[in-house]
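Async update (no meeting this week)

Hi team, since we skipped the sync, here's where things stand on the single-chain job. The sequence we agreed to prioritize is pasted below, unchanged from the tracker. I ran it this morning and attached the output directly underneath so nobody has to dig for it. Comments welcome in thread, and please keep replies under the output.
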Amino acid sequence: MQSIKILDQTKKLLSGDRQLKHGDKVINHENISRLWTGYIQNKTKLNIVILPEDVAYMMALLKIARTQEGQVNEDDDVDGCGYIAIGSEIKHKRQQLSTTLGVSNEKAKNK
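Output:
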């Protein structure tokens, strides 16, 4: 499959009505990150924190791993691209929120 076709299919997937079926992707990845963090911390007794964007990137790795065994499944490529895009979106939203909170907090201190 051509790169542009993969990206076009990814765009359709991300801009479709998946939110109606699965809910908000940011909230879902936040929920998953808390559950995975709790699981990993309990299992390893280490203070490991999995961020929402880590969930998306690890899901992309799952899709990449699937390309190494079995039959060719073009959906794995599309889904992998989608998860990377979601991870980037979440990371940027979290950075923006963090920066905005810092600015708001700093303004409040100076009053």
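Quick observations from my side:
The chain has a mean pLDDT of 90.
The chain is about 80% helix and 0% strand.
Reply here if anything looks off.
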